[in-house]
Amino acid sequence: MNNCIVIIPTYNEIENIESIIRAVLSQHKPFHVLIIDDNSPDHTADKVVMLQSEYNGRLFLEKRTKKSGLGTAYVHGFKWALQNNYDFIFEMDADFSHNPNDLEKLYDACHFGDADLSIGSRYVTGVNVVNWPLSRVLMSYFASVYVRMITGMKIHDATAGFVCYKKEVLESINLDKIKFVGYAFQIEMKYRTYSKKFAISEVPIIFTDRTKGQSKMSNSIIVEAVFGVIMLRLKKLVNSL
């Protein structure tokens, strides 16, 4: 059995889904892909089903009944991946903001390097973001600065959603206690990994904003991240994380 699974949450990604699946499954390393679809009205899941016969045993679909947030989608995928004995578990967006060619870099950092969690980082070597307005670049960059100040983590891109976990990391975390769904979910997972003394490595990537489909960013997600970081730090201080 292949030991690498790439989890891709989707909601209304019909314009991207076939292309991203083909791009991931055409990599030199034979990754598997798990799509977590939140009952997309545009029939994203139907396209995945059509492709499953072509990629028999490499492409999997979990279809949920409603849109329930990025964090819960990944938790669902993590549990599925652990139940199916994958050793390296990836998070990746469906919109090509994460380059499938960088998957092997994340894998190498965990498999050949010392990392237990490798992060595709937009900021570890400067600002490597394409097609974002300056306001969003600044918001994202300073969000990570803020996270470093509050948590003490030496991570340049705390909100990154392009990562690889060794299974031991996810097995050590009580996934049922994960509370957040947006940016704060990404921060929470990294902070729980950091708190358990696992090794974290940042791999420089170039992040390119989506050209098809609509962003899922909202003000509520930003607010959750700002206050969620403080909550995580307080929980750590009282040993309840």
UniProtKB/TrEMBL annotation:
Protein EC: 2.4.1.83
Record organism: Flavobacterium granuli
Keyword annotations of the record: Glycosyltransferase, Transferase
Family matches, as InterPro entries: DPM1-like, Glyco_trans_2-like, Nucleotide-diphossugar_trans
Pfam families for the chain: Glycos_transf_2 (PF00535)
Boundaries of every Glycosyltransferase 2-like domain copy: 6-172
Keyword Glycosyltransferase listed: yes
Entry's family note: Belongs to the glycosyltransferase 2 family.
Protein name: Dolichol-phosphate mannosyltransferase
Family matches, as SUPFAM superfamilies: Nucleotide-diphospho-sugar transferases
A molecular function GO annotation: dolichyl-phosphate beta-D-mannosyltransferase activity
